[in-house]
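Run log, item B.
One chain of 408 residues. Sequence copied directly from the ordering sheet:
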Amino acid sequence: MRTPLLVYVHIPFCTAKCTFCDWVTDVPPSDLRLGSSHSRRQKYMHAVVAQIEACAPRLDAAGYMPMLMYWGGGTASILTESEARLLMASLRDNLELSGLQEITIEASPETLSAWSLAYFRDLGFARISIGLQSLDDRRLHQIGRRHNADQGAASVAAAQAAGFDNINVDLISGFPNETLKEFTGSLERVLELGANHVSLYPYRPALGTGMRRTIRDGRAGEINLHEQLQAYQTGRALLEQAGLHEYALSHFGSPVCSSDIAYFRLGMDWIGFGSGATSLIQQEVLRTRPGRLDDYLKAPTEFDERMPASTGNILARFLYQALSTFDGVDAATWRERTGLSVEKTIEVREVSTFLRALERYCDVETVGSSLRIPPESIASAYISLLFDSAPGGRNSARPSFEHVLGAY
């Protein structure tokens, strides 16, 4: 029997460096904004092909069978038709894709057109995730987006017209100084668009981001915990009333995003292609670091880091993600992916540090040898945890729990 695999393709290019996004913190703007005609971007496409060609035989020999595919970034929808077709042709030529059950592409409104949506559909993408973040023009300008509210709404309609019937929309709640009226105005307009899935992310002042710096310096307003909790709770109520039911923190709608759940709950191994991508293969985490494009171009078949999945900060990060889902950590799956039992995992220093921080806000239940947070407590616990490590938060003077989780 073949082993299920999630295939991830990373596109490290964007039209802008958004002030809230932590992925771009280490990426030089000159690399982030490379146009399709630039020789380094062209080299990148061929480097990803070389990586696919090198990894595919080893994946096949190990018995893997791709079941899910996700193209993200960066901005995956920034790809031209020739770029997208080159990558997909390489994947089809080198991997057995007949068993794929879900194929998703991430998109930003300013990169979408009737033409690009048509060729993404032709390439087999059945699910699209569109990053609106807000439908308030002043907020979009503040966070560095290159689209306005009308363009954001139009992109969802264009995806529907192109034949996408599985559409996710990203929205962020609880921005600094965001009123409940502003947030609900964005969400109500999103609901009018008719997407079947909404990812409602509580704003997180991530380390290294431009917005975190402006909050710290008093130039972006304040984050108010009560207002953040109220925004998410109000958003949840509106989404539930619209028939989009929550199944994990930030995830509302049907069908569920199988790629996200597989990733969060370690439901299968995954291979990440591209600069800045991470893989989990046979209890080993493989990583190419973001912001090191030239290194990737020189050696696309080599990984910058190889670490056991039982490494402390990796376990803490995996647990952070798994506990954000309603089903939490499955003990057998956890052991299969990490090589450790749940009982041994919680004894690891980084994991116990994270759990102590989390347990200030919620109970972590033991069900057999598995772990979960009561679903009704997940949002308030995670929002409170993130708030307390933010500038001005109750524990902002201490090392952030994000340092414990680390990067992988």
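Observations after the first pass:
- The chain has two domains: 3-262, 310-408.
- The first strand starts at residue 3 and ends at 11.
Flagged for discussion on Thursday.
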